[in-house]
Amino acid sequence: MERALLDLSTSEFEELIGRVVDRRLEVWLTQLLDAMPDVREEEDAPLRSQFAESLRRSLEQARGEQTVDLQSFRNQLGR
């Protein structure tokens, strides 16, 4: 069902934007992870593997819809 933006509540609009951002980030992160094996191994390789694992967890959370709304995120940051 298509609805005009004016017809959406604030929470519906936030959810819509969140889904769009999640999809775009998922594509970007997938491309980034696909490119990472080609990166030359250096002294700081453990940091890179931790970063890659962090990205993988983020993707899994996004796919599993384990997300948080913006206000809750700000509250967690103490703002």
Overall description:
The chain contains three helices and no strands. It has helices spanning 10-35, 45-63, 70-77. Helix 1 packs antiparallel against helix 2. It has 79 residues and is mainly alpha-helical. The protein has one domain (7-77). 67% of the residues lie in helices and 0% in strands. The N and C termini lie far apart (36 Å). The longest helix is centred in the first third of the chain and has 26 residues, at 10-35. The chain is flat.
**What distance separates the N and C termini?**
36 Å
Strand content is: under 5%
Rg over CA atoms? 17 Å
Order of helices and strands: HHH
Structural class of the helix and strand makeup? mainly alpha
Helical run tally: 3
Q: Outline, from the CA principal axes?
A: flat
Helical percent range? Answer: 55-70%
Q: Name the average pLDDT.
A: 77
Number of domains: 1
Tell me the major beta sheet. none
Please count the beta strands (DSSP E, at least 2 residues each). Answer: 0
- Please identify the oligomeric state: single chain
Which consecutive residue ranges, at least 5 long each, have pLDDT under 50? none
